[in-house]
Amino acid sequence: MVKKVPEGGYKDIFNCSPATILVMDIDAPFYTILDVNEAYLNATNSTREELVGKSVFGAFPANPTDEVSKNIERTIFSFEQAIQTKKSHTMYNYRYDIPIRGTDKFEERWWTTTNTPILDERGDVVYFIHSPANVTELIKLGEREKAGVEALKNQRKQLYSTFMQAPVGIAIFKGPDYVVELINPPLCELYGQTPEGMIGKPVFEVLTHAKGLGFEELLDDVRLTGKPFRGHDLPAPIYRNGKLETVYLDFVYEPFREDDGSISGVIAVATEVTEQVYARQQLEEAEERARLAVDAVGLGTFDLNLLTGEMITSKQFANIFGYDEPVSRHEYVKVFHPADLESRKKAHEAALDAGKLLYEARVIWPDKSTHWVKVEGKVYYDTAGKALRILGTLLDITGQKKAKEALAESEQLLRSITSAAPTTLWMSDEYGLITYVNQTWIDWTGMPFEAHIGTKWTGHIVEEDKENAAEKFENALLNRSMYEVEFRINHIDGTTHWCVANGRPQYRRDGSFSGYIGACVDITEQKYMQQQKDDFIGIASHELKTPVTSLKAYTQVLERMLQKKGDVREAEMIGRMDGQLNRLTSLIGDLLDVTKINSGKLQFNNQEFDFNTALEDLLEDLQRTTTKHTIVKKLVPAGLIHGDKERIGQVITNLVTNAIKYSPHSDKIIVYTTINDNELTLCVQDFGIGIAKKNLNKVFEQFYRVSGEMQHTFPGLGLGLYISSEIIKREGGRIWVTSEEGKGSTFCFALPIANRNK
Ligand code: ADP
């Protein structure tokens, strides 16, 4: 028979049950506690008195510091669910803190609670059982576990990202084939590969060009012995940017161990040090070059310890001092020229403050020869500012010194020569500013050398001549051409002098323009003589003119008287005399004109005249002067011309007379005119002796005459063409000649007709 629980036994079960039980009324909102068991009292640190008959929320108020759990609301909700649905309702893992009795503090608690309604026969809820299980430990454990897993995950993530982001290349090669298990971007980049292209493949299958270079053996060694390998600045072939390059690597091969300690592969860590290797190589090369350069220029070097007085010197240093091998400092000092010891000492003293040592001194070699040396050094100090060492160089400058002396001598010589010259000499830079003048110019101007430097020399020219001279010089400077110009300058003594200055452009060795070298010659005397000559010619021709004019008058009277008397022969002789007088008059006229031109006094009487009429009259007269030549006219109508009829006539006369004179063996002279929009041109063509090419542009010069044996064949003063060209120039026209020796000449002039009335 089945044993039954004794009467009242259920009460014991209730009390002794390890499950916590609270019996609660359904009197919302109080939910009065009807009964409670031991387990519950234990779990909540309460006594029966504190709970029974009290509202559950009065006994277990909310923890004011717990703002998130909403435990009261959730509990009420669960109560209501149980009562309404008449079924158990469970709340899982929620927080409901328990007051620490006697204080206002709470203890954190987590619960999983079931509220179970108890129904009567009618099925109505009478009360309900509230049974919370304390899950605080469990929850805490769960939280800790979660945190642990999270931390582990984080660690893994961090490790991975460290691995991936490490600035050095890292890879794990597994097994005897060194299959790439893991490789980070830097190493991929170094290999010129992508991770996808490498992971899962034997490394030497990808990096085929690295096969057979000894890397396999290195890896094998590490994998089999467990001894790591470290490589420094090792060259490795890398296929990068589409070509095979040699890069330099620092790398480490470490054995990769499994948890059980067995070696299953190799970890490779690599950094590219190509740049550093190159930099170091370059540095080494630069050092080598510097050393070679020091040797090449014959620099000696020294390192002087200021504390001990000890000095380390190079062999070159010793050689410059006349020793075969380096000696002690004392020995070096001994051979300085005694006269230079003081300045050397001063230089050393000054160096300690200035930080730099610099002096030149003489040393005497064992063979008694003297050598100049230049010492340069830099002082090194400790942090307290105490001078410790001087490092420096030594150079034999004997050659330079000698060259400098020679240069100074030759410059002195040049100065003496230029100073002694009666002409001034000057030099300018490429901007035309004076860089040198000789003593003569200084004497002329009475200003010291320095006052001229950097100025324009035109400053001393008299006002009237300044503009012309400056313009000529500036033009020449612009074109870098030679020039010549005459002007007057005022000397310091108050006298005015004529000068002719010429300048010649100068070029540097590299071909660039460097300025001018020029001279100024005093031509006052020549000018004076020329003036005297001009004056003489003027006076002489003037004095000659009066008697010749009266002579001419008498001959004409005489000729007429003889004709009347019927003395035909005598009359003809007098007629010839008149012809000669005409020539004399014309010669005197030429002389007078030249003096007028030279003194700027040639007068013009410009007016409008009919050109062709005047020309026809003139040519008719000229035809009468020759029996041999026929003047052939080819004329275009020229209309009215503005100018001096007499002067222009004088030019035509001169050209035709010359044509007749210089073509003794021909019988034709052609005079032709042409006209275009703004010029009337007249040409006189002959078929005579012509003019040599080299003389063509000389014929218009004053006093230029046909030379050689012909000089006496053709009389003349050499003034006609000069006067003609001056006249045409003054009338605003041009004059020129074309000629061929032995064939004939054509002299032409052109006059402007731009403002002629049509
Ligand atoms: P002149 O005839 O008095 O010598 P010009 O000034 O008229 O002086 O001429 C200067 C020089 O030019 C002459 O001496 C001569 O050599 C040359 N000349 C001038 N006209 C001619 C010409 N038609 N044919 C050849 N030579 C000429």
TrEMBL record:
- Keyword field contains Phosphoprotein: yes
Q: What is its EC number?
A: 2.7.13.3
Please give the CDD domains that the UniProt record associates with this protein.
Answer: HATPase (cd00075), HisKA (cd00082), PAS (cd00130)
Query: What is the catalytic activity of this protein?
Result: ATP + protein L-histidine = ADP + protein N-phospho-L-histidine
Keyword check for Kinase, yes or no.
yes
Which of the seven top EC classes does this enzyme belong to?
transferase
Q: Tell me the SMART domains matching this sequence.
A: HATPase_c, HisKA, PAC, PAS
Q: Which Gene3D superfamilies match?
A: 1.10.287.130, 2.10.70.100, Histidine kinase-like ATPase, C-terminal domain, PAS domain
InterPro entries in alphabetical order? HATPase_C_sf, HATPase_dom, His_kinase_dom, HisK_dim/P_dom, HisK_dim/P_sf, PAC, PAS, PAS-assoc_C
> What does the record give under GO molecular function?
phosphorelay sensor kinase activity
Q: Which UniProt keywords apply?
A: Kinase, Phosphoprotein, Transferase
Name of the protein described by the UniProt record: histidine kinase
Q: Which organism is it from?
A: Mucilaginibacter gotjawali
Tell me the lineage of the source organism. Bacteria, Pseudomonadati, Bacteroidota, Sphingobacteriia, Sphingobacteriales
Q: Which gene encodes it?
A: yycG_3
